[in-house]
Design brief:
Length: 186
């Protein structure tokens, strides 16, 4: 009986593509030492070398399971993949900035609470609904839609100055109602 260790890399690769994970174990046993030696030349830390080898073997296994990868010359393919994994890590690490001073990244304020934001929107909607229809219309057109006073004026039968005055009164009343709603909730 032939053991998997005695089979050629080509036979083991075909077995892996067929779903035989133990065949990949045989490839690992056969080529892990060479992969580690290469990894030790590419990185300084032994732990990083071991991580590099592990990531490389996992990546190659995924490629083989997908039906791609080498049919022969497994070690060459493995070494090439290992170098690519190392280069990808180096490029990724170049984008990292190690610092113990986070003040330039921390605005000093906590992130917004989505529940509080939802409550504030609900209170604003309630306050808006309590305004008279004409005031709601002027606020909608001037504040929400951002329309100029001159284009809102004919719709409301006012002059642009009249629209500005009405919008001012409506904003002030909206603020008062909103504050009352917020105080009653708290």
């Amino acid at each position: 009986m032939t053991t998997q260790v005695e089979l050629s890399d080509a036979h083991l690769l075909a077995a892996v593509r067929g779903g035989d994970v133990t065949a990949y174990g045989a490839l690992y046993v056969r080529h892990a030492g060479a992969a580690r030696r290469l990894a030790y030349t590419l990185v300084r830390c032994p732990a990083d070398a071991d991580d590099l080898v592990s990531e490389t073997f996992a990546k190659v296994l995924a490629v083989l399971r997908a039906g791609r990868g080498p049919d022969v010359a497994f070690r060459a393919y493995l070494h090439t993949t290992l170098r690519h994994v190392r280069y990808d890590r180096a490029r990724r690490d170049q984008r990292l900035e190690f610092t113990d001073d986070l003040t330039r990244y921390d605005r000093g304020e906590p992130p917004p609470d989505p529940i509080v934001g939802q409550l504030e929107r609900l209170q604003a909607a309630r306050a808006f609904a309590q305004l008279p229809e004409r005031w709601r219309r002027v606020l909608w057109h001037t504040e929400v839609e951002g329309e100029p006073l001159a284009s809102v004026a004919p719709r409301l039968g006012l002059t642009p100055g009249g629209v500005a005055a009405l919008a001012f009164r409506a904003r002030e009343r909206l603020r008062q109602i909103y504050e009352r709603e917020a105080a009653s909730e708290g």
